[in-house]
Design brief:
alpha+beta, Rossmann fold, 2 domains, seven-stranded antiparallel beta sheet, four-stranded mixed beta sheet, 8 helices, 18 strands
């Protein structure tokens, strides 16, 4: 399945959220599993909260009129993770320490004609502390829960809670399998380290060609060559791409591809525009401009759902297509909205 500067977009989201949910909040608590583990290597857990918005966990809808409510846990996430670990651990628990680098934990809901869709996006890294004070990589998660029913709030939050609990439970009974020795500063900035392992971010020059999906683009393995393109006037947008077969130029179908590189420059396919928009690398991330859909009535919920790049951009569709500056999520190829681009 194909597919945020972060702070500015989240600020916009928070401001719109306040307009709709000034005094309405919904609590969130991580659920505990029914059984304790027979063996655990870790007694304490430390949180590195690297979420875009640390003031809430998203927006849900409450009551018969679907009033918007911000998800604000009454107990801090740091305390909740430790209580979760305390509850999971049994008698056979060692004194190890783990660190969770939280990138996203976010709820959103979209109301359709006959039902509601609830989403929870969880993205995190987990590290184990070594005897020498360094840290080794344990695991990561990059997952979306999608639940549909007439009233999704409780069910989505329950499923999201279970997703978090399961991630911790399945990792504390194992030791790190690698011998990495990251400093605490390293794991706070782990995205930078991970990007340098990817050809898309580490190569000095990108390879010309057509990339069918994010994985081939990330690995810089084009599927076919490009011999010519057609630009949209003087704009940095490509509306047609061509290859040469048996001496004849043939147009390549655009919408079956994720990106192209032409003369060393990357262009990302945007389905609403039906073209390839030029991407610019800034601060070790790729940015481009493309349209996303939304409606005025559900503005804040739609914007909230924009965080779920992993499932292909904005969840909700509507008659208004708005240009946004977008960033590629290096983990999954999703498009992360940064800010609205004014004409």
């Amino acid at each position: 399945m194909k597919t945020f500067k972060r702070t500015s977009f989240l600020l916009m989201l928070c401001l719109t959220s306040v307009l709709f949910a000034q005094k309405r909040t919904e609590d969130f608590s991580i659920s505990f599993p029914d059984k304790k583990l027979e063996k655990s290597y870790y007694k304490t857990i430390q949180l590195i909260d690297n979420r875009i918005d640390t003031t809430s966990l998203g927006i849900v809808q409450k009551g018969a009129f679907n009033a918007k409510a911000k998800v604000v846990p009454t107990s801090s996430l740091s305390d909740q993770f430790q209580k979760l670990l305390d509850n999971i651990n049994g008698d056979n628990t060692e004194n190890g320490n783990i660190v969770i680098h939280l990138k996203q934990l976010y709820f959103a809901e979209v109301t359709g004609a006959f039902n509601e869709h609830g989403y929870c996006y969880f993205q995190a890294f987990l590290f184990a502390k070594n005897d020498d004070g360094t840290y080794s990589y344990l695991d990561k998660i990059d997952k979306v829960i999608d639940h549909s029913s007439m009233d999704v709030t409780k069910a989505t939050m329950k499923k999201g809670s279970e997703m978090v609990s399961d991630f911790i439970s399945r990792n504390i009974s194992k030791k790190a399998s690698n011998t990495d020795h990251y400093s605490f500063a390293d794991i706070k900035n782990f995205d930078s380290i991970e990007k340098q392992k990817l050809n898309l971010y580490s190569y000095p020059e990108l390879k010309d060609g057509v990339y069918k999906d994010y994985e081939t683009f990330r690995d810089q393995q084009p599927e076919r060559a490009i011999t010519n393109v057609k630009f949209y006037g003087k704009a940095p947008k490509i509306i047609k791409i061509y290859e040469t077969i048996d001496g004849k130029e043939k147009e390549i179908k655009k919408n079956s591809n994720y990106a192209i590189v032409y003369k060393g420059e990357p262009y990302i396919y945007t389905s609403i525009d039906d073209l390839f928009a030029k991407a610019e690398k800034r601060n070790d991330d790729y940015y481009f401009t493309g349209k996303v859909k939304g409606t005025a009535k559900t503005g804040n919920v739609v914007l909230a759902s924009a965080f779920f790049g992993i499932i292909g951009g904005l969840i909700a569709s509507g008659p208004v297509a708005t240009p946004f500056e977008l960033k590629i999520d290096y983990l999954n190829g999703g498009f992360i909205p940064i800010r609205e681009v004014k004409n």
